[in-house]
Amino acid sequence: MSPLVDVRGVMKEYILGDARVHALRGVDLKVRRGEFLAIMGASGSGKSTLLYILGCLDSPTAGNYFLNDEDISDLGDRDLSSIRSHKIGTVFQTFNLIPEYSVLENVALPLLYQGVDEPDANERALACLSVVGLASRTTHKPRELSGGEMQRTAIARALVINPLLVLADEPTGNLDSATGKDILRLFTNLHIGGTTIVMVTHDPEVAASSQRIMQMKDGRLL
Questions:
Q1: pTM, to two decimals
Q2: Range of the domain at 19
Q3: 127-142, pLDDT tens digit by residue?
Q4: Rounded distance, CA 157 to CA 192, Å?
């Protein structure tokens, strides 16, 4: 079976004034379906840039990115947006919840963007909130939640589209150690259930929860 993620010779360069910054230097990466991969690296190693490309939030300067056997390296913004909304769920360190919306509304929002009817979207959102243990908090606003509950809400939002791939960018970075362990157990359970996960982190303890660990340094996977 072909890998779900197949990155070949991906490079990313930025122009900052007169300087050319090489964020990624010919990265090759394959992620199997159902795998839980952690990518470790210090700040500036390129791990977040790689995650943004995997999440269709950025495009490579050179190289190819195949997702589910489709080369999406050169797609435009509209096509990349469609892939993000239908195939990739992303969990951010800062949660990125809408303060004015309830927990249920935050989770249902990606489905509404897809054109799903509100009753169906809410039903699917509630099912995902049950998976992350927040079925009793649906009417609460983000300000009424703990950090762990906000991250669980963000995970439910990533899951609600039934994604091919879940990406996590330092998902425990804003949490205390006990809450962070709870979130990692949740990712482990999702992996056991067959979810494909790629997580970037600088913390060896966080990476240890994954199935496979890769190191990044100076824009290269070691």
A1: 0.94
A2: 5-221
A3: 999 999 999 999 999 9
A4: 19
